[in-house]
Prior knowledge:
Blueprint: H1 4-12, E1 17-20, E2 24-25, E3 28-29, H2 34-44, E4 50-53, H3 57-63, H4 71-81, H5 98-103, H6 109-125, H7 149-162, E5 185-188, H8 214-221, E6 227-230, H9 245-250, E7 255-261, H10 263-266, H11 282-292, E8 297-302, H12 310-314
Parallel strand pairs: 1-4, 5-6, 5-7, 7-8
Antiparallel strand pairs: 2-3
Helix pairs in contact: 2-4, 3-4
Domain Glycoside hydrolase family 3 C-terminal: 164-313
Protein name: Beta-xylosidase/alpha-L-arabinofuranosidase 1
Keywords: Glycosidase, Hydrolase, Signal
Amino acid sequence: xxxxxxxxxxxxxxxxxxxxxxxxxxxxxxxxxxxxxxxxxxxxxxxxxxxxxxxxxxxxxxxxxxxxxxxxxxxxxxxxxxxxxxxxxxxxxxxxxxxxxxxxxxxxxxxxxxxxxxxxxxxxxxxxxxxxxxxxxxxxxxxxxxxxxxxxxxxxxxxxxxxxxxxxxxxxxxxxxxxxxxxxxxxxxxxxxxxxxxxxxxxxxxxxxxxxxxxxxxxxxxxxxxxxxxxxxxxxxxxxxxxxxxxxxxxxxxxxxxxxxxxxxxxxxxxxxxxxxxxxxxxxxxxxxxxxxxxxxxxxxxxxxxxxxxxxxxxxxxxx
Length: 320
């Protein structure tokens, strides 16, 4: 009810490869789970493609889940479950033991042939064995697609659509968007001028020519006749080290713009948070900015998981 419908939709849409994950389902590691990879994926959904492991997931069956106690036994349960290809951490990978597992009668020749056939079927569909002139992929030019104008515009539209406006307080006579420049404003927080913080885990190589930071964007937008800046946190979003530059930057300004959040420094694969509090001294930064400014505050959050912003919600100060 929760997870399978999305994957089934991908299969029905024409996906030819599926990755089995690190976790267990009902006590069985995903890459050794016959119910998941064969009974449901292949038999119920009619999947004709191949299954590849997440990196190290086959090794984890033995080393992390302790579901097996040898590479031969691990190869047995993975291949028989329906995993066709191992993405390994170690050069001496688990699937190198498939031959021994076949010799010992733990995996049949037919099972190996089925796995290999699925791999080569996809390679053939990709045209890897065709003459280059017959393969349409050889005619693609990277510059026509990677960071193309159309794709950059789509990325901009997606970013705009993903922003969520949580509050727009009208009590101070100012609402978002800000269309009339104010006399003074401050822009503060660890996200104002570090492009690397705007991208999620596994994002592509950053291309500075296509990135506009908060600081640069607000300068170009000319929202204020006088803009002052301060990051406040000297160690980025972790904000364990905080200085008083925010108080100085926001003193008596008509508008304060505060950027807080996590970024992939604190939220990424294998890098989880223990709570939903604003990291480090970020709440202190927010309070300093709000108490120093004489006008409303715009709080901009950069985060994937939830954050506790109850102080901003319950404060008597004016918020946009």
